[in-house]
């Protein structure tokens, strides 16, 4: 497997994203919702980078699944037990591919009366988009390749890799 994004490049990008996000939350507070499982490592690093930028963060999570192996099923299953009424929500996602997952989760949070919902993703594959959705903050735009590492898996393998690698 070839390295696409190194550990250092990820670290620098997470700091840069946190700086940009901190500027937009003038209240100095946000409610982070991690999209598990894929975003668990990115989220853990990003909330600490936000803390370094003086943002207070509270944390919750949702679990979403749309992939089997390297194929999107087109159907998003999620479980979400969160109270977001009146909160400024930041949805933290590992990668946006067809866009179905993040669109569905964002709509659900708006339905549950979040004050605002912004989206940050580490990786974006814009060429794969099937629904109209854009993240507010994007780490890296990448080509249409299946990637693993830094939380992302292929059938639950490779999540622990500290960098992003291409599998096919
Ligand atoms: P979407 O609903 O098609 O945008 O898919 C988003 C989800 O699919 C992401 O949260 C990932 O969990 C998974 N996914 C999409 N592309 C990749 C990839 O290249 N590697 C690993 N997981 C991926
Ligand atoms: Mg995911």
Summarize the structure.
The chain is built from three helices and nine strands. With 168 residues, the protein is of the alpha/beta class. Helix 1 crosses helix 2.
Tags for this model:
six-stranded mixed sheet, Rossmann fold, 9 strands, 3 helices, alpha/beta, 168 residues, 38% strand, globular, binds inosinic acid, binds magnesium ion
Across the major sheet, the strand order is 4-3-2-5-6-7
What bound compounds does this protein have? inosinic acid, magnesium ion
- Which second-level CATH architecture applies? 3-Layer(aba) Sandwich
Number of continuous helical runs: 3
| Overall pLDDT confidence | 95
Q: What general form does the structure show?
A: globular
* Beta strand count: 9
- Report the β-strand fraction as a percent range: 35-45%
Total of domains:
1
Helix and strand element order = EHEHEEEHEEEE
Question: Major sheet, described briefly?
Answer: 6 strands, mixed
């Amino acid at each position: 497997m070839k390295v696409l994004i190194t550990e250092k490049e990820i670290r620098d990008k997470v700091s840069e994203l946190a700086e940009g996000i901190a500027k937009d939350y003038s209240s100095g507070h946000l409610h982070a919702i991690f999209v598990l499982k894929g975003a668990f490592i990115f989220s853990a690093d990003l909330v600490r980078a936000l803390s370094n930028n003086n943002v207070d963060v509270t944390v919750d999570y949702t679990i979403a699944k749309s992939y089997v192996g390297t194929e999107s099923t087109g159907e998003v299953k999620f479980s979400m037990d969160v109270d977001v009424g009146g909160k400024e929500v930041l949805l933290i996602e590992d990668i946006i591919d067809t866009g179905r997952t993040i669109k569905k989760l964002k709509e659900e949070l708006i339905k549950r009366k979040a004050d605002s919902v912004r989206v940050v993703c580490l990786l974006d594959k814009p060429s794969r988009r099937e629904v109209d959705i854009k993240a507010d903050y994007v780490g890296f735009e990448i080509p249409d390749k299946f990637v693993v590492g830094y939380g992302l898996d292929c059938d639950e393998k490779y999540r622990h890799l500290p960098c992003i690698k291409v599998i096919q």
